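Hello Y.,

Per our agreement to keep a running log of every chain we model this quarter, I'm adding this entry. I've kept the format consistent with earlier entries: sequence first, then predicted structure.
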Amino acid sequence: MTAATIASALQRARSVLGRRPEAALRPDPPATAHWEQGTRVVVRHASGRQVTTDMAPELGGAGDQVSPGWLLRAAMASCLATRIVMEAAERRIVLTTLQVEATSISDARGLLGITDGTGARILPEPREVELCVRIAAGDIPPDRLHALVEDSFRCSPVSAAVERAVPVSLLVQANPD
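Predicted structure for the entry above:
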């Protein structure tokens, strides 16, 4: 898809949602995870696409698939990259380079339910997350590219969900029929 096609689609979406804001709020397609064996899980999209996850051998897995934590980082990186592409298309900036790398630091003790020396629970979420963006666009000055990335980051749904800690409800159906 070209930048012009992307910009046109975004303009149409803004026009429709400006007239009908109620159309903007809709359920997202669910991600449905099914346990296969060991620590291997297959997550399916309503379209039929799927992703398999597993843990490292040190945590009981085979280590031959990506981990769920890696999928979170992948979601953050790909969401921001997508948002940058969308913003660049609207600003008529032709990107020549775009790479987003998501890194994090986690404490595996939290995943294992281990407490610290005082008995306090060690939290399982990443302690630090960093998104590193490499971007170039011909003769566009660095300050404009920096603004493009920052504006895109503010509109990146996955990063916003992590940064703002969206509440998560848990519904358990034990022994369903």
